[in-house]
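Section 3.1: Structural characterization of target chains.
Under the original work plan, the team committed to producing a structural model for every single-chain target entering the pipeline before any wet-lab resources were allocated. The record below documents one such target. The sequence was received from the expression subgroup and is listed exactly as submitted; it comprises 225 residues.
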Amino acid sequence: MTFMESVIADSMPLWQEAASCSFVEQMGRGTLEKEMFLDYIIQDSLYLRDYLKAFAMGMVKSRSLREMQVFYSVLGYVNDSENATRLCYLAERGLTDDAIENYSKRPACTAYTQFLLDTAKQEEIPEILMAVMPCMLGYAYVFETLLANYPAVLKSQYGPLVCDYTSEGYKESCQFWTQYCDEVCEPLDTKRKQKLTAIFRAASRHELDFWEMAGTKNEIKQGDK
């Protein structure tokens, strides 16, 4: 078993819980309230800003040009694909990306982004990778499970979002990053790997909290950042 296979197995119960949470199930059944979905898109958009900052810190701490290029590649993908889909959903509700800056993060989003930023500032490349990977890989698991359980979701308003995380391109990206994490982390000693596993699990816990937050009602309003 590779290092990444072991850390993913360790966090899999959290991913499985996320994939079966109320928000995801309601998406699949087509019963999700529009305001709840909009709140999710807003919170995810706010989260994405700090997620990218963690990758940017990875670039700053990179030990080689190749490593810098690997971290930089995510910035382009998010701008071209992930954020593009969110912008379309926001536009349908008369919102722009700039307008999102005026909305407040909910507690689960704040806790998650603070975890990412603290890890990125205080730790080194292997730890940064373990903090950001559960989002990338966990989203693939959640949406692939959603699609498997509810194939018709592709024909719903959530189709573009599901496609983003179940496409062949996204799968290839996940495979690349998984292999890269193994390349970086496999040579490390047992104590360091235990620390990395704990960080990966903590990030996966934050992922689950974020999904559970999305399944609770929230009054969408502007506020202080």
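The chain has ten helices and no strands.
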